[in-house]
Amino acid sequence: MSESQPVLIxxxxxxxxxxxxxxxxEILLLLREKLEHLxxxxxxxxxxxxxxxxPKEVNKALKPLRTAASGQxxxxxxxxxxxxxxxxxxxxxxxxxxxxxxxxxxxxxIEKLIYNAKTAVESxxxxxxxxxxxxxxxxxxxxxxxxxxxxxSNNASAAVFTEENxxxxxxxxxxxxxxxxxxxxxxxxxxxxxxxxxDDEALRANPPSPEEINxxxxxxxxxxxxxxxxxxxxxxxGAAIRLGPKVHExxxxxRLWSRFGxxxxxxxxxxxxxxxxxxxxxxxxxxxxxxxxxxxSFLRSxxxxxxxxxxxxxxx
Length: 316
Description:
By secondary structure, the protein is mostly helical. The chain is built from 12 helices and 2 strands, in the order αααααααααααββα. The chain has helices at 18-43, 56-99, 109-152, 157-160, 163-198, 200-205, 210-231, 234-243, 247-252, 255-258, 265-270, 298-315; strands at residues 276-277, 287-288. It has a two-stranded antiparallel sheet with strand order 1-2. It is elongated and about 75 Å long.
């Protein structure tokens, strides 16, 4: 039995790599996770008997970062919307070419396809720039938080600026850089597609075969169906990032304070608690803090990243 030969795609375009959108949504979820971690870590030094979990100054410092990060759900939604429009126009083109004679002139739908490619590029570029702003805000927010935290209670920074929390910030910065790169890669797909369809000679030189039309239709139809998975819950994820974790609920259930051995003022007086790093507000497991001499300064980690970032730019 002979194996079927692969179909040559000469004129039409296959969908972009679905992994781009899958990873972008994963990054959005990662932003939520890391920002929740940092918010809970900032709540640790506060007095558990106080009616307020986070000082107003801390919430004020975090608000711009949360707002910018939550905006990435809208940015991804816009890119997916433009992707859906481009997919629909591609399927219209496929139907037009299938019904028309191979010598037909350039179909009108191609102009709409070119326009959709242009708007998709713009959405991707905007999303990439906004992701870079999240990265910059992360750095500036962390730099501004330490003096704010030191004013709230004695030795507050010891429970926050730990090696583990520094790693969380590094992962957050890494995710924003990756997200920006992925948005630009997606934009490049549409830029290339727009340039291809602007070529009036391409259709006459390489008219699609019936096999090509069938394969492209199948791939785009399946791709459109999959877009729903990436669009699902974007607004909820964005709202969760903007509002932050339910620290009051974690406190009420004793999950947050039990990690640090803080159950009451009396307990703290008789048994001083050692600062620990919050790993997950929904579990009872926690890791003990390492000795002070082994802790990596939270701000030092950020400062090292800034130096490396600008050093790389300078050498380019």
